[in-house]
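User: Show me sequence and structure for the first protein, then do the same for the second.

Assistant: Starting with the first protein.
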Amino acid sequence: MIKIAAPVSPSTRRIITWCPGCGNYAILNAFNSAIKELGIDPWRLVVISGIGCHGKITNYVLVNSIHTIHGRVLPIATAVKLSNHELVVVGFAGDGDMYGIGVGHFPHAIRRNIDITLIVHNNTVYGLTTGQASPTAEKGQRTRTTPWGSYEEPINPIAMAISLGATFVARGFAGDIKHLKWLIMEAIKHKGFSFIDVLQPCVTFDRLHTYQWYRERIYKLEEIEHDPSSFDEAINRAYEWGDRIPIGIFYKVRKPTYEELLPMLKDKEPMVDRPLSNTIRDLMEKYHSLCK
């Protein structure tokens, strides 16, 4: 009997439990390469992940990390950034984690334009729980919960982010690590809310969206002289799906970030570095005296 050794994270020495061929490997590799090339110190980087196959990524990166509950990547990322706005904060989520249970946090992180990066592993199914239809499953797509095909229209995360006012909107493909690495670097360098939806084939439960299926349809926006500063052009490209699927930077603009607008953070040291001006006892006595 031939035994095949399980892959191990070179940085954390943890066994990687993703299925062989999973697109998550490419996202992990692209992220590690991007961080290395940007020269970000590990102590300055915080990674947050949610529930799903993607969530295990925090086990495989040797940086500060939080594996949070289902759908709560963005609230945790926001709290970390506001506590110490000098940190680089990157959130990883799945399509079910972000566009399903966590979708209520998506528009509010966008409208605040907080300086964090969100990378969504989009494989159209709930891979961790054996392949049920996710919010991005295509109409007619067969899954464990839609054996006769889905009757619902899928969410369009790119169009959603652009229309809500996100200042950096991009799409990557797990089958092109070099291009994905570039997108991650650009997203992290961008001041403001950066969003990357990654087409990440699930080789176990999604037999439709294979690497080959994507490669026959994908084209890169930067190769057709797309103008990422044009809202109208970006939203039109966001609705391209089927025979031709664009990847790259759809939209990119500079607006003041949440941290730049808050008086208590603008041009000041991080909250975590400031001394506590009042103890709990002092506050209780103060409010007690006010109630008399």
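Switching to the second protein now.
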Amino acid sequence: MQAVKFEDWGIIEYGKAWDKQEEILKQNLAVKAKWFGKNEEEKDRSIDTSHHFILCEHPHVYTLGKSGMMENLLLNDTRLKELEVTFYKTNRGGDITYHGPQQIVGYPILDLEKIYTDLGKYMRRLEEVIIRTIAHWGIVGDRLPGSTGVWLDADIKGKERKICAMGVRCSRWVTMHGFALNVNTDLKYFDYIVPCGITDKGVTSIQKELGETIDMNLVKAEINKHFEEVFAVKLA
């Protein structure tokens, strides 16, 4: 069972969190560069890649993925400043999404060459972590064909609503970015964008589904438990 270093960054500005992720990614890529062209016996395992799993919250921010369109941000710069929301174009996959207080953002930085070199399988397992997490509160999560993330009532036309968005980057099989689970999130901020570029489906949160405020630490504990189960790793 492989070890994964766990960190809770608390409430952290999005750009700062992105920089910290990039630094960990660069450290892993530097190790891989030293290994390039060598077989397993020749690799110096005293200098090894490392797995990380980070949970955090961000102040209000909209982020646009590589395949996203600016038209899906429905605010101008003046309105963004009035709402005290920042904006970033990112290097993750996907379109536009929102991060904010009382939303748990997860950043797994994993060397998939040590796990499996299948990005689709990785995404499905990330979804599985969240599906199992929200099941603790009796919420049935599912996948929506053709879309990433975790959805509720995915098979009922007109009732589909996303509770967790996902978008990742993978470089030389090292991942970064990740998921955003709406816990007690103020969902009005999704009204100012076309979430993930999807116009005909809704957004929800654990709080909205249950009609009560949820302890963020309990949700984090459930995420960590299921992350260990699904990926067969040990958080340390």
